[in-house]
Design goal:
Length: 285
């Protein structure tokens, strides 16, 4: 008789090698000790196992379940609910393009389409060299700087298809890439360990994180009765501050090689090609 495989997963999942298990268990115990109830440690522990293999494997699920006295079904339910937990091998750099409403009409759809063609991958797929995983994201919570691309959860603001293609090319070539704001880039595995709650030990990384940008704080300042600062224009590329990823203002303090997307909205919403600038109708129709 011929054996027939039903595609069922191996049960139980294999354990980590003894040395890896010991190292991860020491870290996991540190995480668990932060909480009054061990179950609360599940989210950071999933980041911990993701930092080991670049995605949450059946072995990682088993590890979390054993240490937290949960069933693998309970752990799997959480790991499959949150999109930050990868379910298959992914690249060193997770490139997420916001395609939610504002970013889409400002050019996010065009950026995502351009990157798919440029990289030769679809949504949630990884380049052959294992460097970049591309995915569309519903919202990066940075509408003031639309369209926004994130790399391992660091912001690259006011992007264009051209600047986004250069960004992924630099990542694949190993060239230094600096976010528009926030900490310097590190690999996806390193990011996962930081999200697990372990300190970022890179010199200057914590100090570089900074706070919200001026565009995000303008409304708050006005609400407090303060005078809003000059409108911030984040350069899309070129010379000067653009290469350092630093925003410039309209006061002439630095060159502006590209206009802000707020000044020149782009009619590139692939989701509505007949009305690229958005629907226009009289009230009541």
């Amino acid at each position: 008789m011929t054996d027939v495989s039903l595609g069922m997963p191996q049960l139980p999942a294999p354990d980590y090698p003894a040395d890896v298990r010991a190292r991860l268990e020491a870290d996991a115990r540190e995480i668990i000790a932060r909480y009054p109830g061990s179950r609360s440690a599940l989210l950071p522990m999933l980041h911990l196992v993701q930092s080991e293999e670049g995605h949450v494997t059946p072995t990682g699920l088993r590890f979390c379940a054993e240490l937290l006295d949960l069933t693998t079904a309970e752990v799997t339910a959480v790991a499959t609910f949150y999109t930050m937990y990868r379910r298959k091998p992914s690249g060193d750099y997770q490139v997420g393009v916001c395609t939610n409403t504002l970013c889409a009409v400002m050019g996010g759809d065009a950026i995502f389409e351009s990157l798919q063609e440029h990289l030769g991958v679809g949504n949630d797929e990884t380049t052959e060299d294992g460097k970049v995983t591309l995915e569309h994201i519903e919202c990066n919570a940075a509408c003031d700087f639309a369209p926004v691309v994130m790399v391992n959860w660091e912001f690259f603001d006011n992007q264009t298809p051209e600047s986004a293609r250069k960004l992924v090319d630099d990542l694949r070539a190993g060239r230094e890439v600096r976010p528009t704001r926030g900490a310097p880039l590190c690999t996806f595995k390193e990011t996962a360990r930081i999200l697990a709650g372990f300190p970022d030990e890179r010199p200057g990384a914590v100090e570089a994180s900074g706070s919200a940008g001026e565009a995000s704080l303008a409304g708050l300042k006005l609400a407090k009765g303060e005078k809003a600062g000059p409108r911030v224009v984040s350069p899309r590329g070129g010379e000067g501050p653009a290469s350092a990823g630093q925003p410039v203002t309209e006061t002439g303090e630095a060159p502006q090689p590209h206009p802000s997307s707020h000044d020149a909205p782009r009619k590139t919403a692939a989701s509505d090609p007949d009305n690229p600038a958005g629907p226009v109708a009289k009230e009541g129709k």
